[in-house]
């Protein structure tokens, strides 16, 4: 039986279906387009199938192939290079590094933001009624405050520290040692809308929060007002709070009983959960602080302000605070 001889396979040039002129793809793959000569004249290109093999096209395809291969390869450590033994440092030095990397001396200031179509929070300047006009939106006012902080006239403003929370993702030991530095520093949120985004994002770390300040209270009849109840419902997991400061006006100035009932309606689940975790129904009232704007004598609309001394005004504020606290504890079932 005679052996049959198969005809030799025809060699064909490798076909690339990438666009040779796609500078955006080259940039994404790490190819420097400036170093690759452009093919300005297409008259010498053989347009038959599989024969797209001009010198420039072949050189460019090889560069792309090398870039892809290099991107897939893991980075090789240099010779005699060892990772820094961070966990072998003394505990005092590690704590100092955590404090520098995870805390801000001015507190962690958070505002509402949108990232990749998701509602979230991030560091930023809080714009309240003291530094914005009635005819400016909050976003425009933020931009104006940022420009002013970068101008030469406001060099005295302290620079915001750049935090490095990615340090906590190195390993379990570093996370266990440093996570409290991030969440137990003073945290200031723009309003209850930002508070909801912050608490929803941190999940099980809510119990680590100890110092919280809220700079804005939702009003009107829209989603902003509804966020008061939603955010305080998530706040029920923050059972280790040492301070809760509502540094804002809660609606129009009202009588102490009405103010207490508003707080109870919006924060009932937080007050109950905090009281159950700390052994007293009124425990949350003891850590709650309100802006002085919420206290004082209630005047009728259009009535002239009473001409009273500063001492009398302070006494009226103290009386208003005590009545509000007493009414709130009464609503919570305290004896």
Automatic annotation (TrEMBL):
Domain of life: Eukaryota
Domain 2EXR: 85-181
Annotated source species: Friedmanniomyces endolithicus
Protein name: 2EXR domain-containing protein
